[in-house]
Every structure is written in C-alpha cells, then in structure tokens.
Design brief:
By secondary structure, the protein is of the alpha/beta class. The protein is built from 23 helices and 22 strands. Among the domains are: about 100 residues, no CATH class; about 100 residues, Nucleic acid-binding proteins (OB fold (Dihydrolipoamide Acetyltransferase, E2P), Beta Barrel), CATH 2.40.50; about 160 residues, P-loop containing nucleotide triphosphate hydrolases (Rossmann fold).
Length: about 700
C-alpha cells in the first residue's frame, strides 16, 4: 500500500470540452476531478468491433452494419417518419427515424454509404433498425473498425454517451499511474487476488476500453476479476461510510417518544382490517426504538403488498401526538400522491393534517404549503425529493420515513435529517421491498437495524404467472379484453431499450395506439417518464378511480402503486429485466381478493438465462426465494435490473451478485477503520464522494 501523500486532484476545467455548466452537472454526480471521472465506470459494453452482414442478422442484437442507401422516403402515418433502405451484398435492411431534420433527410441520397449501429428487429423476415447511430462514409475512404468494446455509461439528462466518452478520454489524457492511489491490500483477499496483475490505473483503462478479445460474457455479468476487484473496494468504502454513520448516530440525542396506546387503538380500530402478526411485531420493535433518547435507524423490509405503509402510518401517529412532525419521502410523484391520499383518508377522523410536497406545484400554492410546513400546521408531510430542497423548513421534524429505500442514497437521507435545527437527531424508518437476503442486509447496512414483515395479509391468492411468446400477442389482447369486460383493470408494461428512456416511451405510445384501435370499447391510459408530473397524476387518479381500464406504461409503475381492482399484468420483453424488477412489477396486481394473473410476453428466441429467469418467475411468488435464486444464478439480470433503473447507488458492486465478497468486505473494513482511518477516509472519498462531505473520520 502506498503511504506517500495523495496526488493533487486535477480539476475538471483542465479537461477539453468541460466548461462550468458541464462541471456543475458532473459535480452533482460526485465528480469533481479527472480522477473522479476515471471512476465513472461503464454500465455495460457494446461490441462494435466488426461489421456484420445484413443477411446474417438476428433479432434483438445490437450490431454494426454498413451498406448503401437504395431508397429514402418520408412516410406520413400516425407518426411522420423517415424510412430508408440500406443494402449490402447479403441483404436489405430498413432504417426508421421518428425524429429527423430536413438536412438529415437530404443526406440520405441513393448510393450514400452508411455505417450504422443499432438494435435489429426482425419482423416477418424483414430486418429493421429504429433510430440507429450512423455515420456517412466515403467508399474511397473506408472507416477503420473500433479496436475495443464500446462502453455505455450511466448518465443524466443532457450528457450523451458520446460526451461521456470524450470526457473520460480527456481525463485519461491528463492522468497517470500516480493519479490513482492503491488503497486496498488486495493480496490479502483471496476472492480478488487474481486481478492483481495490473495496477489500478491500468485496470481502470481496461474497464473503459476493453480489448475486443476480452471475455464479454464475464464482463457483461460483472464477474471479470478487474470488476470484482473494484467491486470489493467499493463495498469496503460503502461499509465504512455506514459504520461511521452509525458511530455518529450513537452519540446524538433524540426526543424519546412514549407510545400513546389509546390513540393507537382508536386509529387501528378505524381500519377495515387488522394488522398481521408480522406487522404487529415490527411495530413493537419500532416503538421500542423510538422510546429511547437516541435516533432510531431502522430498515424495514417487506415484500410488495406486505403492508409496510400502515406500519409507517401507525408510527407517524405516535410522533404527532407528541407534537413532532413526520416526513414521508417517496421516489416518484405517483407514489407520493398515492401515499398522500391513503394517509389523508386514514387520518381524516383524527383531525391530523397531512400535506403533499412535490416539485411541480404552482408558485403561490407552493408558498402556502411551505408556510404551513414551517409553522407546524402540516403535521405529516408527504413528498418526493422536493422535501429536501433548500427552501423547505420544518418546525419540529421528529420522524423521517423513506419509502423504497433502494432509490435513495445515504446523502439524501442525511440532507433531510439535517433539516432539524436543534441538537436533537431525527428518528428514521427506511422501507424497502427489495428482497435483500437478511444476512446481507444485516452485515452490509451496518448503520441500520433490521426488521422484516415476512407474511402477507390474509385472503390474497397468489398471482398466477404464465409465459407466452410474442407471436401469441393476439391471444394476450383477447385476455386483456375479457378482464376489462369483467370489470377488472389491467396493466400493460412495455420495456424496450433500457438506455433510451425516449425509445421506451415511444414503444409504450405505439402499443397504446395499437391497443386503442384493437379494443375500441376499452378506456386506455398511457403513462411514461416523459409526461409532466401533473399529467401522470391525473392518469393515475383515473386509473385509481377505475375510469381507466387498461393502463399502458413503461416501467414507471414499478414502485408501490396500489390499485386492488387490477388483476392482470402484461409484461412485454420480461427477458430484459432482472428477477427483482419483474417481481416488483408483478406485485402491482394480486392486491385485492380477486385471483390475479401475470403474463410474461417474451420475444423469441430466449437465451438460456432468459428462459431460466422466466421459469423461476412462474414457479414462485416469494420475493425472498427470488432473491436467493438471483444469488445462485448471479446472472446479468441484476445488472440489468437495479443498476440501469436510475438507482445507481453502486458504481461497480452489486450486493446480490457480489454477496460472496461480503464476509471479506466486513472483516477488511472493520479492521481498516481502527487501524488506518486516513485510508478509510480516502476510500469513502473515492467511492461515496457525496457522503464524504458529512462523515467525520
Ligand atoms: P407495501 O408493503 O408493498 O408498501 P402496502 O402498504 O401498499 O404494501 O399494502 C398493500 C395493501 O394491503 C394496501 O391496500 C393495504 O391497505 C393493505 N393491507 C395492509 N395491511 C393489511 C392487513 N393486515 N390486512 C389486510 N390488508 C392490509
Ligand atoms: Mg409500498
């Protein structure tokens, strides 16, 4: 391990193409220097090293092709599009563009050579690419093939893949071996020893620019030794930050909450159901926590539909009765809105005032809400990230509930609890449906105590899951029709190309149009990430009320939505999603007493792994069993599932895939924190840059 002074960080301004505006965007992602950019690691890779012949293409693969334009026309259909034919010696392929400029169209003259990269769709024998990336080429001046795999980076609005590639190239140009210190003694850890051939700088270079000869199947599942080495480092850093949080927490006082049993009885007595044993047990654990003059930090895990919300509400009640405000933070506006309605209904009789705070509220209205939050008039405030914005002041923040914890980072939780201005800490309850196996949760989330609701409310019949291939689409649509005729509601989830939210939305739009014309008697709603929050809200309200019978969506309905009358869920291309994400989606149905069904409509041919995952989904409804299977398979499902869904809490590690590393991670970090706090701090700085701002080592 190096012990000399750390290298001076090279500022982003030294990198070509990064001005102040981009620098601010990067800062928000925790990237402040060239070295930080080197640690912005690829999500996955594309092989663009060989040009494929059109005749040999298979559906569903992303490939490079090259050919000559033989026709190019604007088609005026439901949506205007440019359609080109591209020909090589082996066949013809169609290129389709929905967004295009006149100049772009003009370039596509007959005889123009193009090199395209995109995903191939084969429909009734004819191959098509929608919105490929393309370059025009001169026959006399052939384009060299790329020599390494192309990295795809996690990103935010306004930074394209091309830009990421340029920034990272720029960062390498100003960096050297000395820019990245070795902070982990990898020799001591058997699981990652094999990666040691290279120093960290060279490892990073390989990860950004893997040679075409590298084992892509290992790389794409995150199991390459280089990746495992970095995953280990990252897990150590994460655990260190959790350990330090816990340490800080233990020295903070908090308001002790004495439970008011009468109030609780009144409240629970007004519900239409009684709590399950599991719910009661967890509630008792929580009440024990909050009775202490120390902040509660409890992780509540419970499968989708297990009834976490009522546990949070009952906890909230105890705080209100002692004049402490409660904040519930949810990852999406849809979910916040839904919680708001649920809480408002539950608390109406008790004269407890609930309020909603999301970002897009008219200014005057927002001002008013902020005032009633600040003066304590609002007792339970439900919202999204808007709750942590600077202008929000609370009067007496006592409890924070975070729903779907895996969508938030430690730093967001921290920002929220810092809103309490006196020296008291804030009690925290973080909830998740992500089935992290218990031992993992307990060893890894070192800052949190752990509770689980391991029982579903009675009277639910398990969801029946079937798998059908895409060519049975007609039969699936009939089924949707039948369900709606019987007064049931249906979800239809479209998943297409994960890194393009835009194309995903397009797919949902196209499907909604198709279903609209095939099912004229059914009211169809469409919801996706591109809609304005207010629009989404209206659609969800209509679906909630039963006015919309069939809801076509992208994966935005994934989290938390609760409409008990919905009994059928269609998931297109399930083979592209991880088991956990599929389980979350499927959990939107089976919430009432009606028998519910889930149709996994896959695209042929299924890979072995894809088939295996679909079989598992059919075999079990149990989130914990699914998590266990995921662990056993360690398939790319997880890589697809959590890392791409915007919840990039980890850059490299995957708690489930890398669970075999955890014992070593725990031992290593527990020792390091005592023996070498300086290195511990550097590791936290490297991997959790935003968290490092507030953790004192
Ligand atoms: P999740 O744990 O996925 O957040 P919810 O809290 O949304 O689940 O609960 C799912 C549904 O089950 C809600 O309609 C809720 O009112 C209902 N529910 C919760 N607890 C019980 C119970 N003990 N008995 C019957 N229904 C319940
Ligand atoms: Mg929930």
């Amino acid at each position: 391990m190096q012990n000399h002074a750390s290298p001076q960080p090279i500022p982003l301004s030294k990198i070509k193409g990064i001005g102040p505006a981009i620098a601010r965007k990067l800062n928000a992602l925790g990237i402040f220097s060239a070295t930080d950019l080197l640690f912005h690691l690829p999500l996955r890779y594309q092989d663009r090293t060989t040009v494929q012949s059109i005749g040999s293409l298979q559906s569903g693969h992303a490939v490079v092709i090259e050919g000559e334009v033989t026709a190019c026309n604007v088609i005026f259909g439901k949506r205007r599009s440019v359609v080109c034919k591209l020909k090589d010696q082996s066949g013809v392929l169609t290129l389709r563009f929905f967004h295009f400029s006149a100049a772009q169209k003009k370039q596509m003259v007959n005889g123009q050579r193009l090199r395209c990269f995109g995903e191939v769709n084969i429909n009734r024998g004819s191959a098509e690419m929608i919105h490929p990336e393309y370059q025009r080429i001169n026959a006399s001046d052939p384009l060299p093939n790329s020599t390494h795999l192309t990295a795809i980076y996690p990103t935010v609005d306004g930074i394209s893949q091309t830009r990421w590639r340029n920034y990272i190239e720029g960062a390498f140009a100003v960096s050297s071996n000395a820019s990245v210190e070795t902070l982990i003694d990898a020799e001591k850890i058997s699981a990652i020893k094999q990666a040691l051939a290279a120093d960290l700088f060279s490892s990073l270079k390989l990860l950004h620019y893997p040679p075409a000869t590298i084992d892509l199947s290992l790389m794409s599942t995150g199991m390459h030794p280089l990746q495992r080495q970095l995953a280990f480092e990252e897990l150590v850093a994460q655990r260190l930050s959790h350990l330090l949080l816990r340490k800080n927490n233990l020295t903070t006082p908090a308001i002790a909450i004495r439970s008011n049993a009468t109030l609780e009885e009144n409240f629970l007595g007004g519900l239409t159901f009684t709590l399950t044993d599991a719910q009661q047990r967890v509630l008792q654990q929580i009440k024990n926590d909050i009775a202490k003059p120390q902040p509660m930090m409890r992780l509540l895990q419970g499968d989708v539909g297990s009834g976490k919300t009522i546990v949070a509400a009952t906890t909230a009640l105890q705080f209100i009765s002692q004049h402490q405000q409660v904040v519930i933070m949810a990852p999406t506006e849809i979910l916040a809105e839904q919680h708001f309605e649920t809480f408002t209904a539950w608390f109406a009789n008790l004269n407890i005032r609930t309020g909603l705070l999301v970002s897009k509220i008219p200014a005057a209205e927002k001002k008013q809400r902020l005032t009633s939050i600040a003066n304590g008039e609002m007792q339970i405030i439900i919202g999204t990230h808007a709750l942590i914005q600077e202008q929000v002041n609370y009067q007496n923040l006592g409890l924070i509930v975070i729903d779907e914890q895996h969508r938030f980072g430690v730093d967001q939780r921290r920002k929220l609890k810092d809103k309490r201005l006196d020296h008291f800490g804030v009690h925290q309850l973080v909830m998740t449906a992500t089935p992290i196996p218990r031992t993992l949760a307990m060893t890894f989330y070192a800052d949190l105590d752990y509770s689980v609701i391991d029982e579903l409310p009675p009277g639910r019949s398990p969801i029946e899951t079937v798998a059908l291939s895409n060519d049975r689409r007609g039969a699936v649509i009939d089924r949707v029709n039948n369900a709606c005729q019987q007064g049931r509601q249906v979800y239809w989830v479209c998943t297409l190309i994960k890194e393009s939210e835009q194309l995903d939305c397009q797919a949902a739009e196209t499907t909604a149009n198709e279903l609209d014309s095939l099912l004229p008697n059914i009211t169809i709603g469409l919801i996706h990430g591109r809609l304005k929050p207010a629009q989404k809200q209206i659609i969800m309200q209509h679906f909630n009320a039963g006015d919309i019978q069939l809801l076509v969506s992208t994966t935005v309905v994934e989290v938390g939505v609760n409409v008990p009358n919905a009994s059928l869920m269609i998931i297109e291309n399930p083979e592209r999603l991880g088991l956990s994400q599929l389980h979350q989606l499927r959990g939107r149905v089976g919430r009432g007493e009606i028998q519910s069904h889930c149709v996994l409509m896959y695209q042929k041919p299924l890979s072995k792994n894809g088939k295996q995952r679909i079989d598992i989904m059919r075999a079990t409804n149990d989130g914990f069993v699914l998590a266990q299977k995921d662990l056993e398979m360690r398939g790319p499902g997880q890589v697809l599932g959590t890392r791409q869904s915007g919840a990039n809490l980890f850059k490299m590690a995957d708690l489930e895939r890398d669970s075999d590393l955890i014992p070593d991670v725990v031992a290593y970090s527990d020792k390091l924190i005592d023996q070498n706090p300086t290195v511990a701090k550097k590791l936290i700085r490297r991997w959790c840059p935003l968290a490092s701002n507030y953790i004192d080592v």
